[in-house]
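User: Please predict structures.

Assistant: First:
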Amino acid sequence: MTHLSDSLITLPIEGMTCAACASRVERSLSTLTGVSDASVNYATHEATIRLKGVSSADLVRTVENAGYGVHTLIAETVLTGKGARDRESELRSRLSAMEGILEVHAEGDTGDILIRVRYIRDSVAPLELSELFKRSHGRQSHVASASEVLDDIQRREENRYNTTRKQLIFAAVLSGPIFLISMSHGLIELANQNLILFLLTTPVVFYSGRPFFVQAWIALRLGSANMNSLVALGVGSAYLYSTVVTLFPKFFSGLPGGSAVYFEAASIIIALILTGRLLEARARKKTGEAVRALLTLQPAEARIIRNGKMVMLPVEELILGDRVQVLPGEKIPADGIVREGNTEVDESMLTGEPLPVHRTVRDRVWGGTLNTTGAFVLEVSRLGEDAMVAQIIRSVKQAQASRAPVQDLADRISAVFVPVVLLIALSAAILWWNFGPEPHLNNALLRFVTVLIIACPCALGLATPTAIVVGTGRAASRGILLRDSRIFQLSASLTTVVMDKTGTLTEGKPEVVAVEPGDGYTASDVLLIAARLEEKSEHPLASTIVSAHHAEQFGVSELEELLTAEITSVHADPGLGIQGFLGKKELRIGNRAYIESELNSDKVIPPPEIWKERGFTTVSVAYSKQFTGHIALSDKPRFDAKEGVARLKELGLKVLMLSGDQKSAARFIASTLNIERVYAEVLPDEKRKIIEQLQRDGEVVAMVGDGINDAPALAQADIGIAMGTGSDIAIEAGEITVMRGDVGNVAEAIRFARKTLRVIYQNLLFAFVYNIILIPVAAGVLYPFVGITLSPVMASAAMAMSSVSVVANSLRLKRLT
């Protein structure tokens, strides 16, 4: 299948066993014409490729030619009845236009036609494929759902883990007696001892050690070398030398130490390295738990209301607009809007918020969250790739697949690591052969094997990606989406956080904050008069005033005539206000000029001066030609905003505020939140220019916003932080998304990024120090000074633990709170 447009595709790679494998796949894909960028993540075993004019089949073929595989899936449908052949042709044409489709195979010439589609896992949306089969009137269709794909991945991982475990147990059982006999120093002496050791070691090498030799042979055939090449050379050298000594002892009888064998080195090296791989596989499995947990959120079935009847159907059969009933204790099957009922929803799996959130009619709910108390009916509004869970998974995977700049040095070293180690091993062997102590041959062989075994490019390859995978996964579980790995390094140099006001630092909706009644009226009277009139209005402020009245936040009015009487002849004067009648008594609400037009201006008491200073919106009220009072409305700061700003300052960051609002309102909010620097009355592009100017002044800037008007500034900033309660455009423009919209979580997001970067640096430091120190020691550099050398067995133990240590250090991020 070919696809000739700019695109980004992810390939799940199979068969990689070390960082050098990832480098080889990356180099192979990068040389393909039409590929502009290729990045292979050894921790997630995924390749991310940006391409144009390259078919999916070419990508898979390139990976296979490099000696590795790509995880593919099969989807099936049956076309029957009249026109089946025409529909097959149309289906083929549509499939050929889809990225990730590899093969379409049809069986049957007449009657039923079985269509079998082979496609790349994660590159084709199951819902899209199912819809295509439906439009072709396919029957008995099967497309692997997200949960089935997850089960398949886990099954494959489990099979690989169990195979490695069996090989390790086999090696360990036989290596025990080999070690005891070899290390007894004469305490255990057996007839034909070397032959017994040979018979015990041979099955370990050829069964337990088979993966190393197979992968090394594949690499050799392709003209490259990897970690398996080093292990195969080391184990093979020790085993072959010992085998020749055992089978042809006369050839070595005249050499000093010529009768020595190293079967224990060959067998125990295999056992220890398999131990390391098993531990690494187990630890690496934990690094991806966050994404796997998200994939399991969606329930398998939904209770759908169709044609007035309730039916249980697979969630894959949901369509936009479906009405779905959700009972207490059930997971919500899809994103939607509540149309009937109210409940408390546990959204902790998406936002990290531990307390259930109240949801009622017209509120939005998310698929995968848990309905805790009431039953309700939702209308499905988002499905497939548009669903919130899918967007979160995509964001997390995007960060995990992207390459952090700090990884570049490690990648450059990994690319030349194996050839350099081979050169060091050969040089050490030659030096020990010519200048070392007796027995020359034995010592040269031991140094050669030890250098090959102790070298570990995997620790370098895992240092960055494992920390990023764990860090982004842990952050996602706390409702923080880190979408680009470059933010980890940028977070360390961040100097300034610029925050949008409306909807970010404030609630984003006006509230009644004060009432100034006229003579003879109470605050509750003013609100009652205004609310009765606003009940008939569609003005944005109307519902705010009505809600304040119903909440009785300013007491209860005693104007009984206004409580139940019908308001008639309601008329709105755009830009001025609204009027209506209670019998013959006029009610009027609007700006001050609108009220004064019906009253003597000297009868209208001006609103408090402090309202103007704080930028409050003032609404004046009149009843029966008498001034009743003023109502002040304002967008209040979020409950967590002041603490959130303080936490950013604790991180050593300067906090600025941007707002399109009037200066007085912006300055009041800023002073309330202890923000010293404010830019008010700015347009969207002016926000971007302010960010640009700060960057020219040497600041490293993070922009926090939630609206469409913030998107240019979010894109301009070094780090864009979008509030998850805001618009889709703002979220798309940000590198970080704070799902809860909690200002305090902005500081948490930066702290997560900085902590992850520290762990990356720790991992790289360990990996560099490990190889820089222990490779020379393995070569024997300390022997002339202190008489110390490393045995191959000790080298294999150190190598096995190096990768495990890096992964274990990364896993500490899972405990970050």
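Second:
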Amino acid sequence: MTQYIVTGMTCAACQARVEKAVSKLDKVTSVSVSLLTNSMGVEGDAKSADVIKAVEDAGYGAKLKDESATKGQAGKSASSLLAAEEEALKDHETPKLVKRLIWSIGFLLILMYITMGHNMLNFPIPGFLNHNHIGLALTQMVLAIIVMYINRAFFISGFKTLFHLSPNMDALVALGSSVSFGWSLYVVYRMTIMITEGVSNMDLMDMYHNQLYFESAAMIPALITVGKTLESLSKGRTTDALKNLMKMAPKTATVERDGKALTVDIDEVRFGDIFIVKPGEAIPVDGTIIEGDTAVDESALTGESIPVDKTVGDQVSAATINQSGFIKARANRVGEDTTFSQIIKMVSDAAATKAPIARIADKVSGVFVPAVIAIAIVVFIIWMVQGGGVVFALERAISVLVISCPCALGLATPVAIMVGNGMGAKNGILFKTSESLESAGKVQIVALDKTGTITAGKPEVTDVVPVIGVTEAELVETAYLMEARSEHPLAGAIVDFVDSPICPVKPIINWKALPGNGLSAEQGGEALYAGSGKFIRSVCSINPDMEQVEKRLSEEGKTPLFFARDGKLLGIVAVADVIKIDSAHAIKELQNMGIEVVMLTGDNVRTANAIGLQAGVNRVYAEVLPDGKESVIKELQKYGKVAMVGDGINDSPALTRADIGIAIGAGADVAVDSADVVLMNSKLSDVSAAVRLSRATLRNIYENLFWAFAYNIILIPMAAGLYSGIRMNPMWGAAAMSISSFTVCMNALRLNLFKVHNASRDHKLRHRVSLEDITVNTVNNDNANDSNKEEGKMKKTLKVEGMMCEHCEARVKKALEAVDGVESAVADHNANTAVVTLSADVADDILKKAVEDQDYKVLGIE
């Protein structure tokens, strides 16, 4: 998407005009114009010069958002990117409007002193004007001309769009004020003629008091300027979240060059540079710590206020704050590639897109102003035919022109979207487009990937069960000594479980890893063994109580590891990929919102069901391959809107297929292509927060649209004189119009007070779906593997020995799928099998070698 800054737009009709002009260009696939940020996003291969010319031909101005960089240019500096964003968000209009307003009010007060103070309340005036009705009329005319000249922007823009046959809100103001002035000028000429004809002073006084509208001609643009100023101030506040985010961008960095620490501009930091960050300083670019320990405040990126401990090898991100320690890090993302710059760009791109609900207002705005002009003409004619007189008919027509407000319609959606996007970014929830912000709240089914989404994605020790006569400490020490040298994924969990390294009195000797079985070693002349239940049974017996423990742990989806010494069982240490602390609570929050929650995983049925039970999901789909996940999503979409939550890599097909793809725990990789929403944290509760924020934003948009439509529907007939007994002065119409847009903007700003993690006001969807009646044919919970069979494709089943857990399954699966010709693989450590689906013939020895290279033994291939 190429972004432009558009100047000269004042209302929704302008926005519609620009969109229409640019969309007519060849090679433009889509265009979205934002009245709020005065920006335009264009997709397609059209030349920038052609786009700018189309905008200018429509009567507006345009320029590239970043003149220094063309679309797709790589290596853009961070400062130029931020400068472009800051320029786009900078409030250029408010200072001009305030200046206009001050001058307008100054001259308007003098005019109102004469028209109301003197004429109605007998306030004193200079003697030469006393009873000089022509002199007073000419004084009013001069003051009105001054106020109209101060606000000439309305007349220039308004009449220009009229000449282009695409009138905007300024055209309504210009017409209303000009007609008032023109009629009043006509009355002044009539008064002068009447004087030459010797007409009585009472008749002149009647014309002066009842037929002059110079104060309306001046008051209309002045009051609209008041409204525009308030609107501009409130619009500026809608982008505060993004502006505050950009203020956190570091401007300089301290880098090591030739053994010296130098302070350089942020743009001078290059990939691979060593940079230094002292306590209290902002981290300048993304990098990897090579020296030092610290705690980093990452709230600018994730919304988390609790500092995160960092040490050598950990990643740090630009714009986060080093709170405690001195660190050195190597830069690995600089310029526009940093996480911080990507967030700024993503939020900016989202603002340049248009939510589907905005199209309703756009369609109305496109015909609104011409319709109002037509209504004003009809109202004038009707009142003339009814005998209301020219003065009364003009007053009604002018009131219709100045009270109508297309701006409220045009701002109803974008102001709420901008505030919602800002609130999301502030809390580590990034919506890629306005459509994703709108759609997230309409989700009826949420499909969750298991590993890394519901669970931590890392095995942990969950249970330590020693046999009678053996202490827990003795079992843990033996487990640590046996597993410390192992490279098996589960070994790391046991090593991490121990607070500090254990130094045995008697050394471990003859340590061996037995492929497909377990571990063996000697200590003090005694043989030590570690491994699966099957392996341990070959070296010692297991009593019934421990067999029951093994069965219980397995049913809970945990992997029991047995340890024995000198032919006697010491006990069991269970390891599992445990669910995150907030997962069950987050899933409950989604269900309280009326959303059905399902879990998709490639794990075996037993493990999947155990995790699903702990997490509290409505349904579990096990042994599902990545393409199988996509099929499940496709089937679920028949019953309602589906959101898929995954890590954005292995789940890409499913994320793309879903109505809303949510990448969780993206960290530095905020530009996950297949996701519509990116969550910076790994907390599942951010999913419910995203839905909650979307619903609040959508509710705010509905409120704004209701106000905008209701305002025009109620007040236009009132201005036309259709309500008996009510006669609206054009000045009051202008005042009402000025308040309308301001009200919409202020309502949107209420979103800044919204608490995204507060579930107290959650409500269930009106149109819920129930999974009780849903049958997803692509996956069968009892035997998901059978349903994934595809006709016409060759399958082979490998008998594999040595797999003990789902992590073993993952290693075998990854090894097999890396072989050319293998389309997919499903490993099952319970059945000791690996079923491969082949897109081409693959020799058995190649498959066997792939598995045995991972230290597992292949007993046969069928």
